[in-house]
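Please decode residue identities from the backbone states below.
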């Protein structure tokens, strides 16, 4: 209530906010019956008070209010602390430095919103505040990365430098040079800056920097830093021309650094023809296990008809090809056919994984009729995935009575309760759309003795309708209709 009044009458009451903050901070913390000791309820009270006030404070930050909040920053919850940091964007440097000094006395909380707010705020102070006297973080960017700080601050400061490096080519080149030719104890911070800054705008600066190096630099260069600092996600931020330029620069060094550079060459191969040629050429130089992995990676450049059956591959190789088929299936019918064939296969892991990928596709490529053969699969996981996908698709498109009959017949001897529940979900969705129970479903009963679903018009008293055993699916859905349901026999 107090917070709402402050939000409504901000002009007349805002000058009382520091007093209210001080009063809450001065009260004796009250124990909480359900929370362990020590529990400080002042953080919650400050959160209630400040929540409606933050937009007003941020819109017109006043020195008195910010100073009062800084003095109690240790009592603020992670949400309030993040908002306080945001309120210090664009205020006087003295206020910013005061808050930073107070925050540096404590470890950074584990909450991501505070880490993100801190990194972005500190990045906004750089590099201008390095020249301001008494800046709490010093006057050199090297101190941010390579000196010791309280717990949690190293990551925050490294991310702040990465934001700065993403907009400053000179700083980016300096950090890249230190990673390639500097001491090894700097590698951790340099790697984080390289990965983050590439995704923040520095991607196109790598190729020009490499081109500026002398020809004999390879003798002292740390190629592993370059390979680890440019994972697949970072490479995607580069233009095809930039990737091709990097591949051409790496070309003379690949024969001596094949094991180190193959991952980077593999990332570049999608967009850079030179990298693709290098990847093919370096396969014989790799260890046997790595060679097999690269051979599977190269399958993405070959027609699907030339791919080996997924059943013959390791699980990791199966995951790679399935992810690739999933990406291609929307436009490439061969990829969709390979997924369907694998889901109908005789190897459990491959079939279940392929059916899961099919279920994750948009409803366009896979029709409801395509799922019917998978309902007959010997593997429970395939049947469950097929029925789940059909129930989802049925909400958008209709299914013929004959198709539902085929599914019911295929599950006539089903003894797995999960599959049974999924079938009831499918029938319930069918009933919602048609406002009637299909004939074949009205004759489906469950034999409790052996948990088997059978289709039989003449049932004994010991058998109960299948829907009664799963009241939260088909049977529960029926009373929700505004029109009467028709039970056909």
């Amino acid at each position: 209530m107090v917070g709402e009044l402050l939000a409504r009458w901000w002009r007349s009451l805002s000058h009382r906010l520091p007093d209210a903050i001080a009063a809450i901070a001065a009260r004796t913390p009250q124990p909480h019956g359900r929370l362990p000791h020590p529990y400080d309820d002042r953080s919650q009270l400050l959160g209630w008070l400040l929540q409606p006030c933050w937009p007003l404070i941020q819109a017109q930050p006043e020195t008195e209010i910010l100073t009062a909040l800084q003095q109690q920053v240790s009592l603020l919850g992670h949400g309030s602390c993040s908002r306080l940091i945001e309120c210090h964007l664009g205020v006087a440097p003295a206020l910013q430095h005061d808050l930073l000094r107070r925050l540096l006395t404590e470890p950074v909380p584990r909450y991501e919103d505070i880490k993100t707010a801190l990194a972005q705020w500190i990045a906004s102070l750089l590099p201008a505040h390095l020249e301001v006297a008494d800046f709490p973080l010093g006057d050199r960017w090297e101190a941010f990365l390579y000196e010791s700080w309280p717990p949690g601050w190293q990551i925050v400061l490294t991310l702040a430098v990465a934001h700065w490096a993403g907009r400053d080519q000179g700083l980016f080149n300096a950090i890249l040079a230190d990673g390639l030719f500097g001491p090894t104890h700097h590698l951790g911070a340099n790697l984080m800056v390289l990965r983050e800054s590439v995704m923040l705008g520095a991607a196109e600066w790598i190729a020009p920097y490499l081109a500026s190096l002398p020809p004999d630099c390879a003798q002292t260069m740390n190629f592993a830093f370059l390979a680890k600092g440019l994972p697949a996600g970072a490479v995607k931020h580069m233009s095809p021309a930039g990737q091709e330029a990097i591949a051409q620069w790496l070309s003379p060094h690949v024969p001596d650094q094949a094991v180190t550079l193959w991952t980077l060459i593999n990332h570049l191969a999608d967009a850079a023809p030179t990298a693709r040629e290098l990847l093919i050429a370096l396969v014989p130089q790799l260890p046997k296990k790595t060679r097999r992995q690269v051979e599977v990676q190269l399958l993405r450049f070959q027609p699907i008809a030339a791919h080996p059956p997924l059943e013959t591959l390791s699980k990791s190789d199966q995951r790679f090809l399935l992810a690739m088929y999933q990406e291609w299936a929307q436009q490439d019918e061969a990829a969709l056919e390979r997924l369907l064939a694998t889901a109908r296969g005789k190897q459990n892991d491959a079939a279940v994984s392929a059916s899961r990928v099919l279920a994750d596709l948009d409803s366009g490529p896979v029709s409801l009729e395509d799922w019917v053969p998978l309902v007959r699969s010997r593997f429970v996981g395939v049947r469950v995935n097929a029925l789940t996908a059909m129930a989802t698709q049925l909400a958008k498109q209709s299914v013929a009575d004959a198709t539902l009959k085929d599914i019911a017949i295929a599950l006539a001897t089903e003894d797995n309760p999960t599959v049974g529940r999924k079938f009831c979900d499918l029938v319930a969705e069918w009933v919602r759309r048609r406002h009637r129970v299909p004939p074949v479903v009205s004759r489906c009963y469950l034999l409790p003795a052996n948990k088997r679903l059978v289709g039989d018009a003449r049932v004994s008293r010991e058998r109960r309708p299948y829907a009664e055993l799963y009241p939260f699916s088909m049977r529960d859905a029926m009373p929700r209709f505004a029109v009467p349901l028709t039970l056909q026999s």
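Observation: Residues 445-489 have pLDDT under 50 and may be disordered.
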